[in-house]
Amino acid sequence: MLEDSREQSGHPRGERDGDRGPSRPAIADSWLARSAPEVAPELVGCVLVRRVGETVLRGTIVETEAYTADDPACHAYRRQTKRNAAMFGAPGLVYVYQIYGIHRCVNIVTLREGVADAVLIRALQLEACPPDEVATTQRQLDRLAAGPGKLCRVFGIDLPLCGTRLDPAGELWLEARSPEFSDGLDRGELQLVQTARIGITRGVEIPWRWYLKDCPAVSKKG
DNA sequence: TGAAGGATTTGT
DNA sequence: CAAATCCTTCAC
User: Fold this and answer.
1) Looking at residues A55-83, what average pLDDT do you find?
2) Is residue A12 scored above 70 in pLDDT?
3) Fewer CB within a 10 Å sphere, N or C end of chain A?
4) What are the structural domains of chain A?
């Protein structure tokens, strides 16, 4: 079991006390062996964990989108290429791509090897400000990972991670929803909203975007 | 071999 | 609403 990184002394601001709880169980590849539209809403509430050296960053997923092999918006819709090859891999692989020459976006590959299904992680709710970031207000912290490009920048997710496997012993992995999050959904205190996907030109009508209602860390408008 | 354009973000 | 910015993808 992975221990949280020890608290670094000397961070005068931005650190909060919410990062000491026990880690949730890591999500198994078998759990991801379902179609992307099935997995995507269930990934909301799960935690994306990133380790870079001694630093461990955690963020609750609050917005996702699903892409499938027969979906015209999918990068792998036409055929397998060098860029999208990871999407054809086994569930539990990571697919990272560069967009507009500037940003990176990260996907979780689902379903099964040979079929290009993946879930785009679009926004994270951070519990604490990463050491290299600046967030003096709660609002700034909320917006730090509010978007697929922003969360990759904050988590240091780049192209070398493309094709690697989610692994609690590695640099990137997923943890299951907390009981509190699941209870919140059960009680209706937390609600998932399903809408059309954002920023695409094909498959525009397909409603495969999910986000946490009223969450301040969701990209654009909730 | 070349050009178009993209699962975005930011500022005007 | 347009720029930034780069490399994959697809057409010639």
Assistant:
1) 97
2) no
3) N
4) 29-212 (3.10.300.10)
